[in-house]
Structure formats: structure tokens, C-alpha cells
Amino acid sequence: MSSAVSTVITGIGELATNDPARAEGGGVLGLVRDAAVVVEGARVVWVGPAVDAPAADVQVDAGGRAVIPGFVDSHSHLVFAGDRSAEFEARMTGQPYTAGGIRTTVAKTRAATDEQLTSHVARLVAEMRAQGTTSIEIKSGYGLSVHDEARSLAVARQFTEDTTFLGAHVVPADTTPEDYVDLVTGPMLTAAAPHARWIDVFCEDGAFDVDQARAILAAGSDSGLRGRLHANQLTYGGGVQLACELGLVAVDHCTFLDDDDVSALASSGTIATLLPGVEFSTRQPYPDARGLIDAGVRVALASDCNPGSCFTSSMALCIALAVREMRMSPAEALHAATATGAAALDRDDVGVLAPGKAADLVLLDAPSYVHLAYRPGVPLVAGVWQAGRPVVPR
Ligand code: NIG
Ligand code: FE
After folding, report:
1. Domain count, the chain
2. What family is reported (predicted)?
3. Residue 134 carries which DSSP code?
4. Who is most buried in 91, 155, 156, 295, counting CB within 10 A?
């Protein structure tokens, strides 16, 4: 017998488990009505109808409200300093989004102390947690020097194991593309690798082309980092095809796709991570989530929280946009923001509420998960448990 404290959350009007074993009758979300969940230590130990729930040390009554798995936000850029609201304001009066704005943040990030960067990330992570996000990926990419990329990742590592080296975000002002790719694949990678699980490249006009991305991902792989890619965000191009050819677990943005890109995604199994907050905040067309899903592509949703193209930390907003603007069903959108987000990080311990999985749960102040899209902009998160600990309210 374990000595960990057990908690039963009962009186759950609607529980979304994402458990494939409950898919029959429960849909993709594996819904259970009038449910209970028992948590022991950091894990879920029991899920089922409330009337059958075993006793536990602590009892919490959800009062008929809905419980969902914590959101898994598989794409964020939280390590930065400075403010770019003026750039957003200019965009809203007609200026296009360009990759070049990244350099503004690089200057501010290099000038910040480690303590300033850490407290800024802590504030954003707390903001995410309060909105129901219990797992996050955090990228570097605003340091762009050996020292500043390594310290950005060391800061990120204090908050998550899913850290991503994005030295290849843009070429900094004081160097050539050739020299910079040599730096990224050489000394910068050596300094970054101990703090990172993933490597990413912004494969786009104005950033890095397909050949450069291929070389950078290959060097990362040689250093034990797994690849992911920013691709087809601003233009059509070969990034998505490269991700599929390399068998990457996920390729992110996927806004401008042709038929061959969609076929490549469907046959490779590479997850398309859509970031609708970016299209909202840059006034671009939204990616065709409906077409992707209907073609058999696995779709995840993430925030892309960053100071330039999208400064939201709200996964609920992303779900609402995916439903309203990208024709995902509310169930598809929640699944994409939880279980498929976890898959996009190659994690099977989170995103699903079943015995043995992480006890990362969100209590909504609503009778159904549908309210996440039905009540856009309304703070519906009434409680969050992360690894079994109640973290919201604190
Ligand atoms: O995911 N696309 C590249 N990187 C970020 C934007 C970075 C910035 O503008 O600061 C993105 O959209
Ligand atoms: Fe991004």
C-alpha cells in the first residue's frame, strides 16, 4: 500500500478522459457522466461512475461541473524581455507581420539578467496554469548567441523538461546566414544541448530555408535532440514536406499548405500543430483544420505564446478560435489541446485521465467542456490539480 494522500473528486457532471478505452459511447473525449476520479500522489488511480468510487482520504465535490485533462501547450516562446505591443498596433492598422520583429526582442533579451528572465517566465507560467495549462513546451530563440541561447534554455528548464533549442529563429543582424548556421550547428548547439530535449528551426522566407533547416536538424539529432519545425506560417514552401520526410513528431503552424503537403502529413503521421492565436493576432487566414482532419491528419492546438506574432497564453481562446474559425468540433478542439498536444511532445503520461496517468485535471465552472468554445473570453477555470496537487486556487 502506498502512503500517498488520496483524493476523490466526485460529483463530476461530465468528465472528459481522452481514454481510448472509453471511446465507445464516450466519443473521442471518452466522456463519462456523473463521474469521479481518484488521485493518489501525482497519479490518477481510478476513474469511473461516482456511485462506484472507492473511499479516499480527501473528498472534493465538483457539484455537477465538468472536469477535463489539463491543457498541454506544446509550443511557446516564453523566455524573452521587452514589449512589442506597438508592433501589434501597427499590424492592426495595416502593417504585415514579418520575421524581422524577432530582432527587437533579441536586443531586450540579451540585456536582461537571468533573474529578470526567470521571473518573467515564472509569471507567464503562472498565468498559463491559472487558465488550465498543466504541461508546456518552452523554446529559446531570443538570445541568438552561444551564451544567450544556453542561458535562455537553462531558465526554461526550471519550468519544464520540454525545452527546445531554437537558435535558428532568425539570423542576427551582425552576421551572415552561412556563418550563423555554422554557429548554430557548432558551438551554440554544444552549449544548448545539455539544457534541451528538442531542436526547432523557423523554416520560412526571411528566416531559414529548407536546406539550412535540414542541416540544423541533422546536427541536433547528432547531439541527441529531437526535431520539430516552424513551417508554412507566412508562405507556401518545403518545410512541412521536410518535417514529414524526416518523420518529425510535429510540424507547427501549417497555415499555407498545398495538396501535396496535406498528403505528406496524412501518410507520415507527423502531427500538424495549429496555432490559431497567431492568425488572430496577425490577421492572417486561418489554417484549414477541417480539411486536415478530414484528410486523416492528426491535429494539435497550442498557444505559440510569444511577444511578436501572438501574445496569448490562453488555450481556451485557441479552442474557441479553432471551433469558430477552423471548423473543428468542440470535442476535436479539446482533444487537440490535450491528448494530441501530449502526442506532439511524444508524451503518453499526460493529456489523458486514466489510471497511471499524471493527475493533471481542470475543474470548469460549467456543466460541459463545450463551454470552452461557447463562452469565449470567459474565465471558466475553477480549479487546477497538477501532479495531484491543487495549484488553483492557491
Ligand atoms: O512562432 N514564427 C516564428 N516565431 C514566432 C514569432 C516570433 C516573434 O515574432 O517574436 C512564431 O510565430
Ligand atoms: Fe512559434
Report:
1. 2
2. Belongs to the metallo-dependent hydrolases superfamily. HutI family.
3. E
4. 156
Average pLDDT of span 76-98? 95
Q: What's 147's domain CATH number?
A: 3.20.20.140
Containing H/E element for 228?
strand 226-231
Confidence of residue 151 (pLDDT cuts 50, 70, 90): very high
For residue 385, report the phi and psi dihedrals to the nearest 5 degrees: -110, 130
The Cβ of residue 371 has, within 10 Å, a number of other Cβ atoms equal to 18
Burial class (CB in 10 A: 0-12, 13-18, 19+), 126: middle
Residue 253 labeled ligand binder: no
Among residues 320, 344, 368, the one where a domain terminates is: 344
Grid coordinates of 262? 496535406
Q: What is the pLDDT of residues 119-141, one digit of tens each?
A: 999 999 999 999 999 999 999 99
Using CB distances shorter than 6 Å, the residues near ligand 1 are 77, 101-102, 105, 202, 230, 233, 278, 304, 306-309
- Does one domain contain both 287 and 199? yes
Q: How confident is the model over 142-149, as a mean pLDDT? A: 98
Instruction: Report d(CA 200, CA 220) in Å as an integer.
Output: 9
Amino acid symbol at 117: L
Same domain for 137 and 262, yes or no, is yes
| Alpha-carbon distance values, 216 to 127, 166, 208, 241 (Å) | 33, 10, 10, 16
pLDDT, tens digit (0-9, with 9 covering 90-100), for 183-214 = 999 999 999 999 999 999 999 999 999 999 99
Beta-bridge partner residues of 386: 389
147 assigned to a ligand binding site: no
Indicate which residue's Cα is closest to atom 11 of ligand 1. Answer: 309
Ligand nearest to the CA of 278: 1
Give the residue, by CA position, lying nearest to ligand 1 atom 12: 309
